[in-house]
Design brief:
By secondary structure, the protein is α/β, with parallel strands linked by helices. It folds into 2 domains: about 140 residues, Rossmann fold (3-Layer(aba) Sandwich); about 110 residues, 3-Layer(aba) Sandwich (Rossmann fold). The longest helix is centred in the first third of the chain and has 17 residues.
């Protein structure tokens, strides 16, 4: 199985890409809804629960770990990779950065995310580490998550909010935009329509899953050890808000949640 975790339901956009690019693999998902959002928590808290969840997923027979959370990717990915050296651990940030660097022509990259992700500077620091000549323009978009969770993906109000947040980045002349939150891919179509042609929108969920796919294709012996099938399981540490609506947006069907907090 492929183990995937997030602080809530946003990571389902990563599951959507797994179903698209790795349809034969069984997944187990854990959304830490009892402690969301991670974006407002400190680094030590996020590391602590990321480790707990990873241990739990491995006990459930996960062979690969996907961190489907930008905040956990920023704060916990390095420590998880050191702690669980025998397990392939994939995170949201580096694959998106690699794609953005390969995409940009004018070296002006925009990043949008939750206030926590933007404040962490995780994308900014790694972009500059890879290329010091890159110009980065970031924007926190705190209203995007509630809009998605209410199912307001393309109404006039949502379009106006998107324009308000993205107009400053567009005016800076960016040619590449990273969606630095797992909820944002559900707004990708209207973001592309609103921001206009000539700006490539990077979905980190897709970038990440393509990296996992490449890894499995290059490690066939390991890939054969991973249980395949359609018996997917979705665990949450508390009742997930608007799960049915989000899952239908991602998969066109409702997923059955298993609500249990193994960390009490």
């Amino acid at each position: 199985m492929i183990g995937i975790f997030d602080s809530g339901v946003g990571g389902l956009t990563v599951v959507k890409e797994v179903f698209k690019y790795l349809p034969d693999y069984q997944i187990i998902y854990f959304g830490d809804t009892a402690r969301l959002p991670y974006g407002t928590k400190g680094a030590s808290f996020v590391k602590k629960y990321s480790k707990k969840i990873t241990n739990w997923l491995l006990q459930k027979n996960a062979k690969i770990i996907i961190i489907a959370c930008n905040t956990a990717s920023a704060w916990a990915a390095d420590s998880l990779k050191k702690e669980f050296k025998a397990v392939p651990v994939f995170e949201m940030i580096n694959p998106a950065i690699a794609e953005a660097l390969a995409t940009t022509k004018n070296k002006k990259i925009g990043i949008i995310g939750t206030p926590g992700t933007i404040k962490s500077n995780a994308y900014q620091q790694k972009l500059l580490k890879a290329d010091k000549t890159i110009k980065i323009f970031s924007q926190a978009c705190p209203l995007f998550v509630p809009l998605v969770e209410e199912g307001s993906l393309d109404n006039n109000f949502t379009i106006e909010i998107i324009k308000k947040y993205l107009e400053p980045l567009k005016n800076k002349g960016i040619d590449t935009l990273i969606l630095g939150c797992t909820h944002y891919p559900l707004l990708k179509k209207v973001i592309e329509e609103t921001i206009g042609s000539g700006i490539k929108v990077i979905n980190p969920a897709e970038s990440l899953v393509k990296e996992v796919k490449n890894y499995l294709e290059n490690n066939l012996a390991f890939a054969k050890k991973i249980k395949q099938g359609s018996g997917h399981k979705f665990f949450f540490s508390d009742e997930p808000y608007n799960l049915e609506k989000i899952s239908r947006m991602c998969f066109s069907k409702k997923v059955k949640p298993i609500v249990s907090d193994p960390f009490i």
